[in-house]
Amino acid sequence: MTEVVSLTVPSGATWAGVVELVLAGLGARLDLPYDRIDELQLATRAALSDATGPDVHVDATANDDRLDVRIGPLEAAAAADPGRKRVLDALADGIELGPAEDGVTWAVLTFSRGGAR
Amino acid sequence: MGSADQRALLVAYLREGDVRARDRLVEDLMPLVRSLANRYAGRGEPTEDLVQVGAIGLVKAIDRFELEKGVELSTYAVPTIVGEIRRHFRDRTWAVHVPRRLKELSMRLSRTRDELSAELGRSPTIAELAAAVGVDEEEAIDALEASKAYAPRSLDQPYDEDEPGRVPGLADEERGYATLERGSVVRQGLDALDERERRIIVLRFLRGMSQSEIAAEVGISQMHVSRLLRKSLEVMRGRLEEPEVPA
């Protein structure tokens, strides 16, 4: 079963905590181990810090055994920075970082129940 | 062990590099560490954590001991051990007001998390943590989030401002750090961190160790690793966003 939770919050660190709290709840419902939830939050915060524009959108898609979190719009430079990609790569089980068809840069972070870390 | 025996072990370690001699000294002086840690018990930190950080202080004291000074090792070590314990408290103060009940639950969850990780051989889920401490999942999440208000020490404070010794075990990670191209974006970010933060970042992102593995390696709790990772990424990001100063 797939369920989607969508959030739109103002850009900025103040609201990142709200997004993290919601994702922690989703991660708990998927029975992700606590350290995966922690890194989900860490990766989300890292991606949110590249948000551009007044608002940032977060779509969390909960599947049976994994959570996909789509975050954007992000600064285009974020996708070109190997350092940022490395951080997200290390934290998430899968990432996609780059422009979508509409030209807007998004990050999609995947966290699986059986993830390696 | 008498002071003559201790001195012989200090000579074996400091002059001949006999690490087993240092281990014996640590073992011999652990009751002192425990006694000092007990003085700080009941202030919100698990005593065993205080013993662990005190032991780090003891190792530092042994490493820096000067045989020529003619003082007893235990006398020399006390300020270093106490300094390490006090630093631990400075590192872990609540940054915002958090209700006492939540603080206590957060600390129980932290302990339970470490216990369950050891028992299960993996990180526990929120449901397992909540069941173990007898709260519902939402309460557990609240308390775990609250624990993030437990601030690492101030960003501009050096790792070891009054004790210039290096972080134990840093050398291996420094080798990984040195492989990063000087001037590269990642290297610039890492340069903004203190030694312990840099070590944790290198272990996590260059060596791919999990938070739990890093916690075991560095001798701190997983939650502390998480907090330091969080803070370090923010510091690195801040450094990268600083405007370049023209040469």
SSE topology string of chain A: EHHEEHHEE
Strand order of the largest sheet of chain A: 1-2-3-5-4
Radius of gyration of chain B in whole Å, from Cα?
A: 20 Å
* Helix-strand makeup class of chain B: mainly alpha
Work out the helix count of chain A: 4
Mean pLDDT of chain A comes to: 88
The backbone outline of chain A, from C-alpha atoms, is globular
Percentage of β-strand residues of chain B? under 5%
Strands side by side in the biggest sheet of chain B: 1-2
In oligomeric terms, what are we looking at? heterodimer
Largest sheet of chain B: 2 strands, antiparallel
Distance between the termini of chain B: 59 Å
Question: What's the overall geometry of chain B?
Answer: globular
Mean pLDDT of chain B: 77
How many distinct beta strands of chain B? 2
Which class of secondary structure composition applies to the elements of chain A? alpha+beta
Helical amount of chain A: 40-55%
Characteristics:
heterodimer; A: 117 residues; alpha+beta; five-stranded antiparallel beta sheet; 4 helices; 5 strands; B: 247 residues; mainly alpha; two-stranded antiparallel sheet; 12 helices; globular
Quickly describe the structure.
Chain A has 117 residues and is α+β, with helices and mostly antiparallel strands. Chain A has four helices and five strands, in the order E-H-H-E-E-H-H-E-E.
Describe this structure in words.
- The complex is a heterodimer of chains A (117) and B (247).
- Chain A has helices at residues 13-29, 34-48, 76-80, 82-91; strands at residues 3-10, 55-62, 66-74, 94-99, 105-112.
- Chain A has 117 residues and is α+β, with helices and mostly antiparallel strands.
- In chain A, helix 1 packs antiparallel against helix 2 (34-48) and helix 2 (34-48) runs antiparallel to helix 4.
- Chain A starts with a strand and ends in a 5-residue tail after the last strand.
- Chain B is mainly alpha-helical and 247 residues long.
- Chain B contains twelve helices and two strands, in the order H-H-H-H-E-H-H-H-E-H-H-H-H-H.
- In chain B, 33% of the residues are buried.
- The interface between A and B is medium-sized, with 27 and 31 residues.
